[in-house]
TrEMBL record, chain A:
Domain of life where this protein originates: Bacteria
UniProt-recorded name of the protein: DUF5519 family protein
Pfam families reported in the protein's UniProt record: Luciferase (PF17648)
Origin species: Dawidia soli
Chain ranges of the Luciferase domain: 70-132
TrEMBL record, chain B:
Listed name of the protein: SRPBCC family protein
Organism of provenance: Dawidia soli
The organism's place on the tree of life at top rank: Bacteria
Keyword check for Flavoprotein: no
Transmembrane residue ranges: 20-37, 43-66, 78-97, 103-125, 137-155
Length: 156, 318
């Protein structure tokens, strides 16, 4: 149902407060019926917010938003969609490597989406966020195939 | 990862304080919005999104001001949010005299927005975010008072059609008035106790004559006929609506209409129209319920007319 609404009724996000309520409802639903997704989101939030210079806030359409240097790296919605911003070139590469999907709403942008369905998706989400973090933090080295260990104040 | 065990000494009564202070805030803010808004409104009591969105968000933020002392995962707050929602709903039942079905309808809205408040609190109650906290409170106050002093008049019209295997002249006999409908309702909210229409009476069929639409709990809509074209159109305006604790007390139903159209096979297409204005907001939530309930009222009345008219045809024109 959440996927249907996100893909087909996206104009609803412009209805005042609807998106926040919808995301909170999705989060509550997952807490009750898919706690694995909730725990995975919490683990990712815990991990990413520990990276040096990263702060968290509430995303305007609901969910946790990760910021670095005053700019958004990405966000995780309560229903388990991770949206991360890259350049169009990197986005094309990530989609080709099947590490991410086209963004659920903004197709003609650098945004990609990644779906958390179980605890196994944790590393994939962290990979994307760590890649975005490295780009924002000014790291020019090639990102390895495995997630970069950036926890607890680490730096790429 | 798990930090449930870490508590500071101030967390001892944090849960109780969060619940108590957030509910005190709710009562005060709700009363303020209710009084200010209904000084401004001429069309009956309106409960707007200041009450149904901003108050629960504020409750969540205030509760989180205390609950954050207990270092827990966000998901561990959910039982507290549910508990606080139940308390808020009980306060609504006590102070507002709301009916059970109204409370069932409002509960997802309250729960969702209270959780939004908890999320906002989760991110703004950090020592380095004083400016964000001040900005949030300022924005909250602006939104609250802008809404309270805004005009609220979301109007809608619901239309439904039903084919009746009887000519318009027979259907017409049951449009203005019909005897008591004893059939058990099959719509889930009617089965739960939401009043459903059971009978209509008229003092005559001419323009200006009175009509009454009686619901299962005795609530009666006083109406006046404004258009009566035999076998064709019957329109009435609602002049007095019952005070009701359930959802029909939160919708201003203004006009109703039946249109009878003869079909090629001699049967009748009966169209039922209702016009209403919402008295509860946000419209994106309550209008879904209003449309659904109005539709079910139409279907119940029109189906009753259908049964009566088709039975009439079978008895008199077998």
């Amino acid at each position: 149902m959440f996927r249907f609404i996100i893909h087909n009724l996206s104009p609803l996000k412009h209805v005042p407060f609807f998106a926040l309520w919808f995301d909170a409802a999705a989060m509550i639903w997952n807490m009750l019926f898919s706690p694995e997704i909730t725990h995975t989101i919490e683990e990712i939030e815990h991990e990413v917010s520990a990276w040096r210079g990263v702060s968290t806030s509430l995303h305007k359409f609901g969910g946790v938003q990760f910021n670095y240097g005053g700019k958004e790296l990405g966000h995780i919605h309560g229903h388990g969609i991770v949206d991360v911003l890259f350049s169009r070139r990197i986005k094309t590469s990530l989609i080709r490597e099947e590490r991410a999907e086209d963004h659920h709403s903004f197709k003609r942008s650098g945004w990609v989406s990644y779906y958390i369905r179980s605890a196994a998706d944790r590393d994939g989400a962290l990979y994307l966020l760590s890649l975005a973090y490295q780009k924002s933090a000014g790291c020019t080295t090639r990102v390895p195939d495995t997630p970069v260990p950036l926890s607890a104040g680490g730096h790429a | 990862m798990e930090k449930n065990v870490v508590q500071d000494p101030g967390s001892r009564y944090a849960i109780v304080k969060g619940i108590v202070y957030s509910n005190i805030f709710a009562v005060v803010a709700f009363a303020l919005a209710y009084l200010l808004m209904n000084l401004n409104e001429a069309g009956g009591i309106v409960i707007s999104w200041a009450e149904f969105i901003l108050v629960p968000i504020g409750m969540g933020v205030i509760a989180m001001r205390f609950w954050r002392r207990k270092q827990q995962r966000l998901s561990a707050r959910l039982p507290l949010v549910v508990l606080n929602t139940v308390i808020a709903i009980m306060l609504s039942a006590f102070f507002m005299g709301e009916g059970v079905i109204c409370l069932v309808i409002v509960s997802p809205l309250l729960l969702g927005f209270m959780f939004v408040g908890v999320l906002i609190g989760h991110y703004i109650f950090h020592d380095d975010k004083k400016m964000l906290r001040v900005s949030t409170i300022f924005l909250y106050a602006i939104l609250f008072f802008v809404d309270v002093f805004s005009f609220h008049g979301h109007a809608n019209m619901v239309s439904d059609e039903m084919i009746i295997h009887a000519p318009p002249s027979v259907v017409w006999k049951y449009v203005a008035a019909h005897p008591v409908n004893t059939r058990e309702p099959d719509y889930w909210l009617f089965s739960m106790g939401l009043p459903c229409p059971v009978q209509s009476t008229v003092s005559g069929h001419a323009v200006g004559d009175e009509r009454k639409c009686i619901f299962s709990n005795g609530a009666t809509f006083d109406e006046v006929i404004v258009q009566s074209v035999q076998d064709s159109v019957f329109t009435f305006d609602i002049v007095k609506q019952p005070e009701d604790p359930e959802i029909i007390g939160h919708i201003n139903i203004e006009r109703g209409q039946f249109i009878l159209t003869r079909r090629a096979d001699g049967s009748t297409l009966l169209t039922g129209n209702s016009w209403y204005t919402l008295k509860v907001y946000p419209a994106w939530y309550y209008d879904l319920w209003a449309v659904d309930i109005t539709r079910q009222v139409h279907i119940r009345v029109m189906d009753h007319i259908k049964q009566l008219a088709e039975h009439d045809v079978q008895v008199h024109h077998p």
